Amino acid sequence: MPPELKKGGVILVDKPYKWTSFDAVNSIKIALRAKIGHAGTLDPLATGLLICCTGDMTKQIAGYQQLPKEYTGIIRLGASTQTYDLESLPEHPRPYEHITRADIDNLLPRFTGDILQVPPIHSAIKKDGKRAYDLARAGKEIVMESRPVTIGEFEITQFNLPEVHFRVLCSTGTYIRSLANDFGEALGCGAHLQELRRTKIGNFSVGDALTPGDWRDLWKPRNTINITDIS
What we know:
Layout: H1 3-7, E1 8-15, H2 21-32, E2 36-39, E3 47-55, H3 61-65, E4 69-77, H4 101-107, E5 113-117, E6 126-127, E7 130-131, H5 132-137, E8 147-160, E9 163-170, H6 176-187, E10 191-201, E11 204-205, H7 212-219
Parallel strand pairs: 3-10
Antiparallel strand pairs: 1-3, 2-3, 4-9, 4-10, 5-8, 6-7, 8-9, 10-11
Helix pairs in contact: 2-7
């Protein structure tokens, strides 16, 4: 284990599907046996880049959290979900076959630039001192206030109904689940987030990241064998 990493460093982690961000970071913390924190939580169904800071570098987490983020994913048209993704079942099916690529392209400017966005009620945002998702699961009525976010780029990379593949560059605090839901409402057919991957945070890329298992294997002590001892 590099001692300088325990003192303070940055680890790029590729979070696996259905892992919580806490699970991913905790598995590395156990292997590293050092103070560690992460900048920017990912939902369990999302994959991709987590910036983890160790030792003294944990003081820099707030700065990393403010960096713009890039995501790729799939919006599925034709039904919404309560969580805006596949953590809940699709409901309220509506026709989508009439939607054209031109309809999609014409809508993009509405969701690009400085916009107001309402976070999902199934989110970690606190309402009256409690997590919104805890209140939602308890059946409480929740009103989420809109807040300003910035969508620097919103690109459609593939159009194959009912799937719309995209790439988004956005400010911190942006909920891509809300973007998918709002996009479907604007189209009049409903939509939810089918797949999401965080590919960049600032200049950090998921291409330079390792999964938690890869990091553990990298740090695992290895027994050395002297070739002269082999008969």
